[in-house]
Amino acid sequence: MTTTFPPGAPNWLDLGTTDVDGARDFYGEIFGWTLVDLGPEAGGYGFFLKDGKQVAGIGPATDADRGTSWSTYFATDDVDAVAARVETHGGKVIVPPEDVMDQGRMAVFTDPAGAFFSSWQPAAHHGAELVAAVGAMAWVELSTTDAAAAAAFYPAVLPASARDIEMGPGMTYTLLNVDDHAVAGIMQVESEAPRWGVYFDVADCDAVADRAISLGATEMLREDSPAGRMATLVDPQGGIFSIIKSNPDFAP
After folding, report:
1. How many CB atoms lie within 10 A of CB 77?
2. Which of 3, 56, 218, 238 is deepest in the core (most CB within 10 A)?
3. Across-strand partners of 34?
4. 134, 104, 102, 132: which is closest to 119 by C-alpha?
5. Where do the VOC domain residues begin and end (predicted)?
6. Is the entire prediction scored with pTM above 0.85?
7. Domain span at residue 53?
8. Three-state DSSP class for 171?
């Protein structure tokens, strides 16, 4: 499945890792990804491919404090304007808007609670070529200690709107909508460091989770949810990611 990405929707993921070769082997084994290295001029950056289509990026970790981590990028047609709105509404610009060769223009931010996120203004590179398919991005979700503040911040800096839904007794979940379609979620947590999490579709959650653990991953949780069976794992280099066997009948 290929797609286009309206402004405000997540259009790219990448992994900054302390061990590119180790991550290549790990994710290749559990998702069937292959790695295309873009060469020295790209600073060690490359593309993960699934069935020949770009699903995510990978490169050396550049922030010692973050270590290995997945990053979520949101589409925009004006990354400089996003940066200005982030500062106006209490976030921080960590990497100011910059051109990435002929591929596009990007910036890195934190929201008022400290969660990292990025924005991508496409040029030659439009974003992921495969989503909502096995081995590709299924969903992105912000875990934060102040969901109400996040639900105000992100619609102010992205062209999105916030909508609450009930996910169970006493559990409210916030969706970010673009063009009346849910593109991301916001979940209230009590003590975790705020972060954007990435979910990848799998055909069998338990089999993939077990295989990941056998390759050196650790498990944070595994459970059923209305959206499907899911697990959150930490890769051998310390990067947190989630997998989900999506429930086709779930329509948030």
Report:
1. 11
2. 56
3. 49
4. 104
5. 9-122, 136-246
6. yes
7. 1-139+195-252
8. strand
